[in-house]
Amino acid sequence: MKHGRIILLALIVVLGMAAWVAAADGTVDQKGVLAGKVLAEGLVAPGASVREGDVLVYVESIAGPAPAVRATCDGKVAETLVKPGDSVRTGDVLIRIQPARK
């Protein structure tokens, strides 16, 4: 009985680690720092190459268009999670970047 529990526990740990590795696709989430409506102008598309500091998303603000997300690393845009007209909040994940290999 004791050996069966150990084997079951080991199997659960291995399966959990496999699921974790599969979920960790290596992308870096880019979170918004401003709330507002996403603008079409300047919205980065999947596949675009970006450098750290590039503006990825603009939102409409009281003062006009304002950068809501800047790239935190060099790489390629893996996924754009918003479209023009979407309302976003501070802290929302808007873009995912596949970091460049160094």
Can you tell me about this structure?
- The protein has one domain (27-99): OB fold (Dihydrolipoamide Acetyltransferase, E2P), CATH 2.40.50.100.
- 22% of the residues lie in helices and 37% in strands.
- It contains one helix and eight strands; from the N terminus they run αββββββββ.
- A hairpin with a 2-residue loop joins strand 4 (55-61) and strand 5 (64-70).
- The protein is elongated.
Order of helices and strands: HEEEEEEEE
Query: In angstroms, what is the radius of gyration?
Result: 19 Å
Name the assembly state. Answer: single chain
- Looking at the structure, what is the overall shape? elongated
What's the CATH superfamily, by name? RNA polymerase II/Efflux pump adaptor protein, barrel-sandwich hybrid domain
Side-by-side strand order of the widest sheet: 1-8-6-3
Overall domain count: 1
How many individual β-strands? Answer: 8
Query: Major β-sheet, in short?
Result: 4 strands, antiparallel
Tell me the name of the CATH class: Mainly Beta
Provide the helix percentage.
10-25%
Class by SSE composition: alpha+beta
